[in-house]
TrEMBL record:
InterPro entries: Amino_oxidase (IPR002937), FAD/NAD-bd_sf (IPR036188), SQase_HpnE (IPR017830), Zeta_carotene_desat/Oxidored (IPR050464)
Ranges of residues in domain Amine oxidase: 11-284, 311-410
Any GO MF annotation of the entry: oxidoreductase activity
Protein name: Amine oxidase
Domain of life of the native organism: Bacteria
Protein source organism: Acidiphilium cryptum (strain JF-5)
Amino acid sequence: MTRVHVIGAGMAGLSAATTLAARGCRVVLYEAAKWAGGRCRSYHDAALGCRIDNGNHLLLSGNRSTMAYLRRIGAEETLTGPSRPLFPFIDLISGDAWTLRLNRGRLPWWVLRRDWRVPGTDALDYLALRRLERAAVTDTVAGMLGGLGTLYDRLLEPLAIAALNTKPETASAAPLAAVVRESLARGGAATIPRMPKIGLSESLVDPALAFLRASGAELRFGARIAGLTMTDARVTGLVGPNVDEIVGSDERVILATPPWVAAELLPGLTVPDAHEAIINLHFRAGIDPGPAGFYGLIGGTAEWVFEKPEVVSVTISAANDRLEQETDRLAAEVWSDLRRGFGLPRAMPPWRVVKEKRATFAATPEQLARRPGSSTRLVNLRLAGDYTATGLPSTIEGAIRSGESAAQHI
Ligand SMILES: Cc1cc2nc3c(=O)[nH]c(=O)nc-3n(C[C@H](O)[C@H](O)[C@H](O)COP(=O)(O)OP(=O)(O)OC[C@H]3O[C@@H](n4cnc5c(N)ncnc54)[C@H](O)[C@@H]3O)c2cc1C
């Protein structure tokens, strides 16, 4: 049985490992940390006294690779969300609240219903979305869609920031077009918001580890790979503080680390090297979950707020310019938005700020041009990760698809 060494147990590595294990390959998974999940994980927070996710992650029903992954690891039932395609919003400046609703089919007749679309927009405004069909990598989101007034301010800008984690003035419209092609353009049925019922690890990580263990895979935690030994043509060994492994002549390697580690391990590899932060704030409080369990916020510091089992979690995307801000001031600023939007008390409950400095690579035209494909100059080495050239932005769906396709090429 072919042995495949998968380096990195984030979404890309778990996707590759489970695809291979499902096909009967012998998988050895090496993870530097003591836990799996990478940028998508849950953990116990001592200050809050409960489990939290490192950051809110929103999926869509049209994320086909993610849904296939969940089916493979038996975790389909661990997601939740509204049963229909709807997105509630609150405008903190005007005080308006509305719920964007889509119909399930491909023909978007929902735009004809005034009470389903964004208040202040016209059915014809939505036709402008078709511009995305001809988006080139060098087109920016603001350049293509910025002139759309209310539709842009109240829908397209927050969606673009959520999908690309990059300010629309510099973000390329091409990966946004890819997201729209795989969701909205396929109709509301492909655009139903999905998120974990309990936590990211409970849905996307722990069931994958259980699946791998049951398949006989070898899981090595605390196993950082610090170097690859290689000939001109192939990888012959993996080395690290706790690893000294020979890669046999019929064996393969999938490198599923973040881009900066991949570039260190494989000299000469070009990868995206500019990143954007995401800041999440978790408050030990509760809000009315509304029809979806989350809300888009317009005109505030944060863009999205999620009602979680034990906390209210708020996301600030494309947050490089907020990294230096003191956490208590940031928490107070966001709490004030939450008070305005949800009528919460003045006293701030226990809170935690989680700053993920390199949450995603910056989805600018320059950075997109640096994405490598999956194959490498070494015949037995493939790359996987959200930074590889999937056409999608740096997302769970991109990471999972990259792992699946690296595995399929083995
Ligand atoms: C706060 C936040 C919010 C987000 N929100 C969303 C969202 O709403 N929707 C969405 O789809 N996506 C979202 N994302 C993006 C998504 O989490 C990532 O795109 C995805 O998790 C990346 O997976 P990956 O496997 O490519 O990389 P990683 O998660 O970085 O995994 C790489 C793994 O490799 C390990 N590793 C590193 N070096 C070594 C080494 N030398 N040896 C062995 N192992 C090593 C790491 O420890 C890690 O486990 C968000 C990300 C963050 C941080």
